[in-house]
Amino acid sequence: MQYVMGMMHTFIYILLCLYTLLSYFNPKKQKRKTNEKAKKLPPGSMGWPYIGETLQLYSQDPNDFFAKKQRRYGDIFKTHILGCPCVMLASPEAARFVLVTRAYLFKPTYPKSKETMIGSSALFFHQGDYHNHLRKLVQSSLSPEAIRKLIPDIEDVGISALESWASEQVINTFHEMKKFSFEVGILSVFGHLDEKYREELKENYCVVDKGYNSFPTSLPGTAYHKANLVRKRLGQTLTESQITDNIIGVLFAAQDTTASVLTWILKYLHDDQKLLEAVKEEQKAINESNGGGKKPLTWAQTRNMPVTYKVIMESLRMASIISFTFREAVVDVEYEGYLIPKGWKVTPLFRNIHPNPEFFPDPKHFDPSRFEVHDNCTAKVAPKPNTFMPFGNGVHACPGNELAKLEMLILVHHLVTKFRWEVVGSQSGIEYGPFPVPLKGLPAKFGKESSTQEVFI
Ligand code: HEM
């Protein structure tokens, strides 16, 4: 018996030796090894073991962190943040490579906590067939044909928000804008939703917004009703968790983003009275043609607000509220002679591209004329390809961009024609929560334009 066992061991040993020898001389394997050696990682620094450079990123203005790296290492550099090795890309060509032309080599990736909070079936976390299918559904509910019907409702939501701000002393502009963009998000997902359910949804969503992991998949007594509403709207059957995750996902994607940009728009207009006058002039003419606001805005009018439109575009550029987007290499990828190893995160840095003087001269100056447009808001001089990506690019580019622009145009229309505002306290500084917004959410006092009372004491 012992003899047989001994023979077996020898046999296995010989097999292992043979396998190792064969693999060593396997030309395919050899080639891969030589290739990997030939390709080098991009320049950069990986910081401390485990924590990498996360502390450096969060202990300073992220702008400075990225800008310093780009100055030191160029448009492609490696770092290690939030527990992941990462290649950051600061050129338009590299952004296009990752997001558009070689998008199939990179999958979307988010911190696990975010995925758990929103729900793993939400479209941003996927690629391929499931993503395509969902994206078509979401896109159809955010298409121009769908959103143009929402104009009167968005106007109502905007006017009542502005009225409420004017009745208060000082408001946190960003917090109030979040309420507005959330209401518009609900409109785009559910259409008209009964007041009771809307309030319940808001209450529950607030929990998600604060970072808890417990969004109830069904609101008491209303799950069936809502699921049906959404099913009807999307015209397809999805599982309940797919519906829930995507509802939360869309609301999540719609709220802080739009609210941050709106807050910046108010700051930029406040800081440039001449520009504010030009916007007022444009909007007052539209208001008068609507009988002093007696008639609702039309789709055509919202498509013909060139001055305001340019302010929105320049605000999107200046604020760059989505600093970068995260992808993960699904295989070893070679870019410009550098290796991006499989499993590494890849981040196209919008925040470094938008303020690059090569693409936008005098980039720190707020200058809407860079986005010169025809009367119908089609671009006269478009920025160079892939240099202006506030809504991303490629298969995951923002499907809500038209709605975002529409709600911003509508709010600004009512704001400048009927109200005025004054920023209170410090007028400079940025805070990140996580998107950049003016310090303390831009505290401001609002008043009615027609009011004879002086509101700003
Ligand atoms: C000014 C406001 C907004 C900005 C700046 C913005 C920006 C972006 C960006 C940069 C992306 C791409 C992210 C990536 O590539 O990883 C994105 C995706 C997305 N956005 Fe927006 N967004 C805004 C408003 C909205 C609104 C109003 C909605 C919906 C009502 C929305 C829904 C979405 C969805 C569903 C995705 C994921 C698309 C996909 O993965 O296929 N966004 N957004």
UniProtKB/TrEMBL annotation:
Cofactor(s) named in the record: heme
Transmembrane segments: 6-25
One GO cellular component, as annotated: membrane
UniProt keyword terms in alphabetical order: Heme, Iron, Membrane, Metal-binding, Monooxygenase, Oxidoreductase, Transmembrane, Transmembrane helix
Coiled-coil intervals, chain numbering: none
CDD domains reported for this sequence: CYP90-like
Keyword match Metal-binding: yes
GO biological process: sterol metabolic process
Binding site for heme: C398
Domain of life, per lineage: Eukaryota
Topology term for the membrane: Single-pass membrane protein
InterPro entries xref list: Cyt_P450, Cyt_P450_CS, Cyt_P450_E_grp-IV, Cyt_P450_sf
Subcellular location: Membrane
Record-level Gene Ontology MF annotations: (+)-abscisic acid 8'-hydroxylase activity; heme binding; iron ion binding
Keyword tRNA processing: no
Family, per entry: Belongs to the cytochrome P450 family.
Annotated protein name in UniProt: Abscisic acid 8'-hydroxylase
